[in-house]
Amino acid sequence: MKEKPIEMRYRDELDKSYGVAGMALGLTVFEAEDLFTAVTLDAEGEGCIQFTPEFYFAGNPRLSPRGAWQYILGHYRISVGLAVANALCRRMVLDNGTVDDRLRDQLFNAACADGLDSCQLERDEVEPIFDEVFSNLKRLFNDSRVRKAMDAFADALQQRRTLSHIDVNDILQQLNLV
What we know:
It is built from six helices and three strands. It is mainly alpha-helical and 178 residues long. A three-stranded antiparallel β-sheet has the order 2-1-3. Strand 1 (36-40) and strand 2 (49-51) form a beta hairpin. The model is unreliable at 1-7 (pLDDT under 50).
């Protein structure tokens, strides 16, 4: 029986603010802070992060096939990181819970589906990418200082609704996360 991929539905706005906060931190962790212009609670799904045009790959004849592949693969890694950061921040910080095998498997299955769709990656090719992202973010969100900082970030996001790229960087610096 094939398991349904994880659905990133939010229980409420508080839950959403932690998911978006996790993704904002994830952008920094994966050195993609130059690929977004803002984060917002007033959008749905992937629209919570407003990406720069450079994030979206439309092809570039000046890139070699290998260069284009590396570009697409790098953005796939970022996408996996954002999904994992969203889920782990909500589970580990907001809910003060632990990550069980079910959540990990759901995230892995979603990463596999996305990897097949965007990069034609098979499960065994997704696994090392996912494992690295997952273990790094799990370790990060286990840190009590990071958890406290995410509480403050989610609170700032709820109050202001939208944070520009500069606002996100300023808040993360004030919280000693960058």
